[in-house]
TrEMBL record:
Sorted UniProt keywords: Transferase
PANTHER family the UniProt entry points to: GLYCOSYLTRANSFERASE (PTHR12526)
Native source species: Salibacterium salarium
UniProt GO MF annotations: glycosyltransferase activity
The keyword Lyase is assigned to this record: no
TM spans (from-to): none
InterPro entries: Glyco_trans_1
Keyword Transferase: yes
Designated name of the protein: Glycosyltransferase family 1 protein
Domain Glycosyl transferase family: 127-295
Length: 319
């Protein structure tokens, strides 16, 4: 059987981690970063790559676009965000707005691809509407629960303090850092029992230190208009940290039943502020949600629970 190829973006980023995990469960798989596939194309040529590999897959539509430009065929692709195939992805509110399709991208990049795997149900639904002749699977995301796990900690100083975190690229408009996150902070900053911390472009936290970042929190805020994931929701839950979020990506899907009231069809600061104040006054519930967050991830969202879906969708491997 010919080898399979999976292309990701960077070793140090989320997709690089994902590619390495998938490779552990697929011994006949080569994984290459975007720089490595460019180098292989320049040395061996696109014809060699197309002939050598029996199945070629990418971990994003952006990478599918790269391979198309390199004249490398793409058989399957993960779809991990609303970027590329729609024109209004920067402003699209996932819980209420209509997709404006990017017809050029759909025809040039997506039409030749045989099968897609979208990482949240809404995303899969929208892609299927735009590509009705394609196989579009919802593939359940996974998180490395050995790496992202609760770490015992003792609160020092203010025992009533609630630490609230935000993680992501604060320069992207779709994250609503300026319009939603900052107004929440401004409203609550005088409360000595609430502390806000961030892992963003200005205050970078290395990937290896993200488990410690999550474990320093009592609650994670997600304020985006739309998301494929986002990965911080899974990672925080795996560390036993509940999430207060806009209704985007797979956040509601991965949240425990008792925590779903924290997933809001809203990007209004006051709606988030009310939830934070409620949790501040109901510490027992917050502790319960922390326990349930980890338990729910271990029951449904581990690598072992989901990897077969990935192998089947991207490489047509049934186990």
């Amino acid at each position: 059987m010919k080898k399979h190829l999976l292309v990701y973006d960077y070793d140090w980023w989320v997709l690089g981690q994902k590619a390495r995990i998938i490779k552990k469960h697929h011994p006949n798989l080569d994984i290459l970063s975007n720089n490595e596939i460019r180098l292989l194309t320049s040395t061996k040529g696109f014809g060699y790559i197309n002939s050598y590999y029996g199945m070629i897959s990418t971990l994003s539509l952006g990478l599918a676009q790269l391979l198309t430009r390199l004249k490398i065929r793409v058989d399957t692709s993960q779809i991990g965000s609303y970027n590329y195939f729609m024109k209004n992805h920067e402003t699209y509110r996932e819980w209420r707005d209509i997709v404006h399709p990017n017809k050029h991208f759909l025809n040039k990049i997506m039409r030749p691809i045989k099968q897609f795997g979208a990482i949240n149900p809404k995303l899969a639904q929208e892609v299927k509407k735009l590509t009705p002749d394609k196989n579009v699977n919802y593939i359940q995301q996974f998180v490395d629960t050995n790496r992202f796990r609760p770490a015992p900690k003792e609160k020092k100083g203010n025992q009533k303090e609630i630490v609230i975190g935000w993680a992501g690229n604060n320069t992207r408009n779709v994250k609503n850092h300026t319009t939603l996150y900052q107004p929440i902070v401004k409203n609550l900053q005088k409360d000595s029992n609430i502390t806000f911390v961030q892992a963003n472009r200005a205050s970078r936290v290395p990937l290896k230190d993200m488990p410690a970042f999550y474990n320093s929190l009592d609650l994670l805020l997600i304020t985006s208009s739309n998301e494929g994931g986002p990965a911080p929701a899974l990672e925080a839950n795996a560390c036993g940290v509940p999430v207060l979020s806009t209704n985007v990506g797979y956040v509601k899907k991965i949240t425990s039943p008792n925590g779903k009231f924290l997933i809001l069809d809203s990007a209004q600061p006051n709606d988030f502020i009310k939830k934070i104040k409620f949790l501040k006054e109901n510490r027992d519930l917050l502790q319960k949600l922390k326990r349930e967050a980890r338990e729910n991830i271990m029951s449904h969202w581990t690598v072992e629970k989901t990897i077969n879906e990935w192998l089947h969708t991207l490489f047509k491997i049934k186990q």
